[in-house]
Every structure is written in C-alpha cells, then in structure tokens.
Amino acid sequence: MSTPRTSSISPDVRLPGTARLGLARTSLELLTFVRERDAMIFIFAYPLIMMAIFATVFDGQVAGPPDSGVSFAQYFVAGIAATGIMLTSFQTLATSIAVERDDGTLRRLRTTPLPPTAYFLGKVGQVMVVTVVQMAALIALATTAFDVPLPNEPGDWLTFGWVLVLGTATGTVLGVAFSSVPRSGRSATAVVAPLVLALQFISGVFFPFYQLPGWMQDVASIFPLKWMAQGLRSVFLPDEAAALEVGGTWDNGVTAAVLGAWLVVGLLVGVRTFRWRRRDDG
Amino acid sequence: MTTHGTAPTTPLGADRDLVVSVRGLRKEYGATTAVDGLDLDVGRGEIFAMLGPNGAGKTTTTEILAGHRRATTGDVSVLGLDPARASRAWRSRVGVVLQSTNDLAELSIRELVHQFARYYPDPRDPDDVVEMVGLGEQSGSRARSLSGGQRRRLDVALGVVGRPELLFLDEPTTGFDPQARRSFWELLRELRATGTTIWLTTHYLDEADALADRVAVMRAGSIVALDSPAGLRARTHGRAVVRWDGGEATTASPTTLVQDLAARYQGEVPALEVRRPSLEDVYLELIGQTPDAVPESTTAAQA
C-alpha cells in the first residue's frame, strides 16, 4: 500500500493525559447525573426516602428480642446504605451505559482520541462522588431524625470503609458488565430496576433478614447485596446484635470473599462483553 | 474551484498527497454485500462527495474509513494508517460526524464543545467553533432543546473542534430546510479553506454539485461513476429532449427540430418544451432509475 507523504504521525504530538481526561469526564458525568431527574430521584434520593419511610413506620420498635436494644431505624440504616451503594454503582452504570450505547454516545466518543480508560475513570469518579455524598446524607438523616447512634470504634469505621470501597468497586464492574444485557436504552431501567428491587426484598433491606424464609436467605446469599447489608450491620449495630444474624456472627470474612468473587466475575465478563456499538449495529 | 481527476478511472498520481486510499474494499454482512470492491483516492484539501440512494453502501464505507467498522477484505489507508488499527494520535487528526443521534442531551453546547476540545492535542478555540457553526446565540442551550439543524451543527462543532485534517460527514444536512443547508455549505467551504479535507456522503444531488470537487456515485455497493460535477454533467452528450403537443423527440440538434416544427405549425408550436438532460437525469440513470418523471424545477421550458 502506498504511504502518503505527509501521513507520518509527528512524534511530538502531545496527547492529553489519561488521568486528566478521567477528571474531565468525571465532572461531565456528574453534571449529567444531577441533571437527570430520574437518576436524582431513583438513585440518589431513593435510599433517603426509604430510610425516612421505614424508620417512621417502625418508630419505637426494636429488632430481635425486646432487650436487644437495636431500633429498627438502626437495623435498616445498614441495609439502606448497602442499597444506596448498589444503586449508585450498579444501577447507575448498568442503565446509563446501556443508554449511552443505544443513543450513540459511546460511538461518538470512540471516534475521538479519548482513551477508553478515561471514559471508565469518569464513570468511577462519578460513582465515587455520588456514593460519598449519598452516604453522608443518609448517615446525617439517620442520626439526626431517627436517633441512630454512630459507631464510635475506629474498627467499625474501618469496616465501613472497606465494605464501601469493595461494594462500590463490585457494583461498578457489575454495572458495566450488566449494561450489555438490556436490548435497548429504553428498556434499560425496566430490566435493571426490578432486579435491584427484588434483591432489596430478599437481602434484608426492608425486612429483617432473620425473618425471611430459609430458601430466600439462601438465594440472597448468592448475591452481593445481602453481604454488603450484613457487613454494614456489623458497623452500625452493637456487637451483641451479631446474634441476630443467621450464622450468629458477622462473617465479615465471607462478605469480603463474596464481594471479591463478584468483583472478579464482573471484571472478566465486562472486559469480554463490553461493546461500543449496539448489538444490532453490525 | 479545483477539480481533480476528471477522467473517472485515472488513478491519482503517486506524487499527490493522498489522504484516503482504498483498494478492493469489500464489506459483507452475512450473505449481504454492502460494499462490493471499492477503489478510490482522496487528495488533501478536497471535498469528496459520495452520492447515492439509501442502502448504496455510503455509510458503511464511511464508517470503515473512520475506523468505526472493519472491512471484510481490501486495503484501506487513511492518513497513512489502516483505520481498523486506529491509534489515539490518528483519531486526533480525524473528525467524524456520523448519522444523527440524540445523545448527550442534558449538556449545553458550550459544555460539550469545551469538553471535547480537551480530548485533542491541538484543539480549536471552543468558543470560536461554536460561533463558526452559528450556534453562538444558543451556546447555553442543552442539546435536548435544539432543532434538527442546530443539533447537526453541534455534531459538526464536536467533529471539528479537534482541528482535524480530515473530516467525515455522513449525510450532514438530512432534514435541513433550504436556508439551513445553504449556510451549512458555506461552513464546509470555510473549513476547506482552512485546509481540511472533507469526505461527505449525501443523497442530495444539489449538495454534491454545490460542494464537491469530485463525486463518487454509488449504487448497490459499487461506484458507478467517479468524476467532477462538471464531468458528470458532460455525460449528457449534448442531447436534448424536445416536447410539444403532439410529439416528443430526443435529438442532438434541437434548434433544427424546433425550426422544422415552427414551419410545420406555421408559427407557435403548441406547448413547446426543450430541455437538456440535467445532472439529476444523469444521476438517476447511473443509479438505475429511468428519469421518466422529470421534476418541474429541472424543466427548462422555452417558448
């Protein structure tokens, strides 16, 4: 093939750095997120609304035996925080990337010199910022309006930290992987939201996990949400409340292992299945 | 206006600065052949138009050249590289405006053009680009609220903000009103004046005629003609159609025929009409549609 004379790419072309582009993408993703009314209501505000409703309805009731000293508000805050982590990472990405694939955003970005890594860094950055703000708002709501005591041991905060980081990372890669499942952007929310809602019902978010039928507990134990909720209960509930768990202990090691396994599965599937184009597009 | 290669099959000289070079390009989707053995070259600074009906393979060809799709077989060189193995550096030299989408709806024109400028090593000034595409007044508007024509101008702004050497435009003016189309053409001429090579697909003959240095007419995956607009027009071979109330004739000497008719009718020939085959007739013939029904606008009635 003939090589045109001026075709050689001059070596001194300085392409913008990936990290800087990741930051630029993060700010754009955040701008888009806060402008999407659906996202703000069903992703950001949803856990706060659920917290307010459930803590109000079950006001004054305690979880477990009468002397457990664990209010329902305290029990729920863990599950609802876990839900927030899953919504903000998994549901946000599974739907937004499916929509972006369908509406041509991905195709357009692919024609620019934006490195794919920067695109994903933007998604991760957006998820991280929204998660931090959401968790801060949820904890503020729970402590001020519903008298949920804050954990005061550094070890609890450390657990909170790693469950948050690992849960967000797992939700993020699973969201990227799952974005290939909806057949169109229009159907994305309809496919993702019911799945996430079903997980909430069986994972001890709206009902105490120990009250659920055994088979439901077994099904929930396959998925990350149950383990995130349990890990966060180990943070927000007193140590004695471990007796309310099915195994009688917090099992934080298992939580880390299950989340880690899903993280690896999500990465492997996501890398193999990610497409810049719609399925029906050649 | 410069014209290149008025003889359709003459390959461009080896010394010419080629931006696009295609040999034997084929693209198959299962049993369907979308592009069937394409050969063509585009020189630097040209406006090259691919003209053809829907489904002729224009978009597929464009997407292959833009690195968005892989060819089944054939050699493709764009800016000296195979687009299927496009690097970031290559992408920074190519602007791509694919067919219309409704993405990025919640962001404003200004936000988007500034954002995309950051992806390139040597971008144009984003505010200048917004002015250049005529969206200065609306620069704070979100993409969602734009009309079809404004949306397309935003697409072009995003395609040119990186100061591309080569700009691909896939049916850029579909759905434009005539005035919007004229000002869009002006924009493309300005871009060409800055040295940008423009690859354009269109199914509007007048667009190819008004803009292109060379036109490739595509039909069912193949190029059936590759010529300057003037060269295409010259294919009418000087024939003209003479029609009157009572007959019709195709002749190379219409004046003689009209004189004969005038003599026969002893004065006014009823409903006399003499017309040269238009570029549109040539085009319709090339893409396999007989120009039976001639639109009124192209009919030059002469009394």
Characterization of this structure:
The complex is a heterodimer of chains A (282) and B (303). Chain A is mostly helical and 282 residues long. Chain A has one domain (18-273). Chain A contains 10 helices and no strands. The relative contact order of chain A is 0.14. Chain B folds into 2 domains: 18-233, P-loop containing nucleotide triphosphate hydrolases (Rossmann fold, 3-Layer(aba) Sandwich); 237-298, no CATH class. In chain B, strands 5-6-7-3-8-9 form a 6-stranded mixed β-sheet, sandwiched between helices. Chain B has a 3-stranded antiparallel β-sheet with strand order 2-1-4, covered by helices on one side. In chain B, strands 11-10-12 form a 3-stranded antiparallel β-sheet, covered by helices on one side. Classes of the chains: A mainly alpha (282), B alpha/beta (303). Chains A and B meet through helix 1 and helix 4 of A and strand 1, helix 2 and helix 3 of B.
Beta content of chain A comes to under 5%
Biggest sheet of chain B, in brief?
6 strands, mixed
Helix content of chain B: 25-40%
Given as residue ranges, the uncertain stretches of chain A (5+ residues, pLDDT < 50) are 1-9
| CATH class designation of the largest domain in chain B | Alpha Beta
Distance from first to last alpha carbon of chain A:
27 Å
Distance between the termini of chain B: 34 Å
CATH architecture of the largest domain in chain B: 3-Layer(aba) Sandwich
Tally of DSSP helical segments of chain A:
10
Number of helices of chain B: 10
